[in-house]
Amino acid sequence: MKCMHELMLRGNYPGIATHDPRIIAEAKRFAKENGISPDRYEFQMLYGVRRDLQEQLVKEGYRMRVYVPYGTQWYPYLMRRLAERPANVAFITGNVVKEMVGGRR
């Protein structure tokens, strides 16, 4: 959190790459408290993980970058991200199933 605060205050255009709602809430709170407008930073998330949260942040006026791992090392990268937070597997699986049955646009 301390590094995030410093980047938000003094960084050029920090990307807050997290799916953790507590970190996102703190970033929003800190930005508001310090008069940092939403166009001075962005949130970043993996494609297919917490799409509900991605859409909510965009609706609230925050910038969102959604990225997809690619290249020769995409699979090991994705596995490391999933291992960091096993709940992400459930988010990805749920979103894939929703799209397969037509529950998403």
Describe this protein with a few key phrases.
105 residues, 3 strands
In short:
The protein is mainly α and 105 residues long. Helix content is 53%, strand content 11%.
Walk me through the structure.
With 105 residues, the chain is mostly helical. It contains five helices and three strands; from the N terminus they run αβαβαβαα. It has one domain. Helices cover 53% and strands 11% of the residues. The chain has a three-stranded parallel β-sheet with strand order 1-2-3, covered by helices on one side. α3 (51-59) links the parallel β2 (42-46) and β3 (64-67).
Question: In terms of topology, how is this protein built?
Answer:
Blueprint: H1 2-10, E1 15-17, H2 21-33, E2 42-46, H3 51-59, E3 64-67, H4 74-84, H5 87-100
Parallel strand pairs: 1-2, 2-3
Q: Which structural class best describes the helix and strand composition?
A: mainly alpha
What's the total count of β strands? 3
Biggest sheet, spatial arrangement of strands: 1-2-3
What global shape is seen? Answer: globular
Q: Count of DSSP helices?
A: 5
Strand residue percentage: 5-15%
Mean pLDDT, nearest integer?
A: 86
Cα-based radius of gyration, to the nearest Å = 15 Å
Uncertain residue ranges:
none
| Beginning-to-end CA distance, first to last residue | 35 Å
- How many structural units, i.e. domains? 1
- Report the biggest beta sheet as strand number plus sense, adding barrel if it closes: 3 strands, parallel
